[in-house]
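Q: Predict the assembly, please.
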Amino acid sequence: MLLTTAAPSEAATPPRPRRSGVRRQNATGWMFVGPFAIVFVALLITPLAYALYLSLFQKSLIGGTRFVLFDNYVKAFTDPNFLDGVWFVISFSLVLIPLQMAISLAIALILDLVTTSFARFSRLMIFLPYAIPAVIGALMWGFLYSKNFGPIADIFNAFGATGPDFLSKNLIFWGLLNIVTWQWAGYYMIIIYAALQGIDPTLYEAARIDGASQWQIMLRIKIPLVAPALVLILVFALIGTLQFFNEPKILQQLAAGAIPDDFTPNMYAYQQAFTLANSNYGSAISFALGAVVFICVYIFLFATRKRGSFLS
Amino acid sequence: MSLTATRGSRRQSRYITLQVVLGILMVYFLVPFWWVVVNSSKTSSGLFGGGSALWFSDDIDYLGNLTQLFTYGGGIYGRWLFNSALYAVVGGLGATALAVLAGYGFAKFRFAGRRVGFAVLLGAVMVPATALVIPTFVLFSQAGITNTIWAVILPTLLNPFGVYLMCVYARDAVPDELLDAARVDGAGEFRTFFQVALPMLRPAVVTVLLLSVVSSWNNYFLPLAMLSDNRLFPVTVGIGLWQSTASTYGAAGGQSLWSIIILGSLVSVIPLIVAFLTLQRYWRGGLAIGSLK
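A: Predicted assembly structure:
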């Protein structure tokens, strides 16, 4: 009976076999989804719309607040401070993400092969940095890098050499790269590992009977079958890296002079909104950054959709 | 027989190489922890005295440092830990409850607006959380709730990815036939949900809860922007504050602060590590939800 009284839009879609437990009940469905929907509208849609609104105004001491349409965006996309930040996070992602993926995939493949208790223990230990707040992780590595109490300086001094200063302007890129890799590689490894464990082992048997080597099994079966997990990780890593903030913010004081206030777009937005009290321009940067991330991720997902991404 | 034996031993030896690789990797991943464990035992003179950075100095003074950590600034560190726990637990539980309900709703009911709603949800997964901080701050300051606990807890409730995970999991793990059976037996929708579906969703619930708690405990940008009263800070923002104070005064003036910053970092990571180790069997499978297809 429910079927016949369903909404007219149903008539437009081709009839599909009725899955018995799936009910066409608007009220009940919305009762479950409703609470989240309210939070979603209040804390995602509203702030986004408001950011867009704020970004269309400019505040000045003389003229007060006035409507300027897209002037803030024109300003942002010609502002070298913002563009340098965008360039930094993009180049950082281009180096970081392949490196991180390769490391986590390699570890996951090893752990899939080696099943000793030592391997199980190391899996847990490699995952551990994920439980560490980025702030604390950055601080820990900041200590290790430090000339005052870090071991790197000690070790190199013992050989009469000067250790690399990962907190200097030249090497901060690599210093940060190491911190982020350390923090996330274990988490990504666990996701890939779980996907590897989900593969039907009879596939390996069949391949072995056909004479496939361990390498061939890895390259032809394991890696293609965990591709959806890799796509998922790439998306996470991309979203996370483009909004880079915590680590450079924490290292800012330790690495005197190497990290300016406009180092990443998010740091620049923070500086504009909170240090300079210019929430209009800060909002424009936030919104522009959000749009850049959204578009990058969307293009990426579109390009890899055949791989069975989570949008399909 | 001999063939399998040689193959077996060859494989074994290959695995020994791989295990050495794992051992080296483990050292890399654990070095920062080791440094913190070692150096939080040192007094500030031991810290700056030029001893080995990776080994204990002569006087091990955990107790002295702990006392200093929890009494410095009127015991503010304990307060930060409490705040972190409060934000993580309340925010995490709230976010998980909302995600479970919504994920189940998306998975099991065909309501008007479901397709559009789900598409919007997937889009929202791609919106960077930090892009929302500044406009949310301005909105909250107009509502007068910045610099309160709600300014941190409310935004934490939003977890679109959690909803997506729950939906994917519920679609496969809860058979429709079972729900129908419950309904035929006269159970209402909510009773069906709580008594039939919810127990089957447990691995996903624990995973979403853990992910929400971790992201809230680790959050820095949001509380940094929202809070100005240092008694409301979570431990991340608090230690960040100490660190910038100590750095500003340089090695000389900030020396006494460094030893409690290091111990403070160590203490702040213990709760989550314990949570992860004890809840292992729940999250190990759960983290893969959404990547298996």
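The first helix of chain B runs from residue 2 to 39. Chain B has two domains: 1-29, 71-286.
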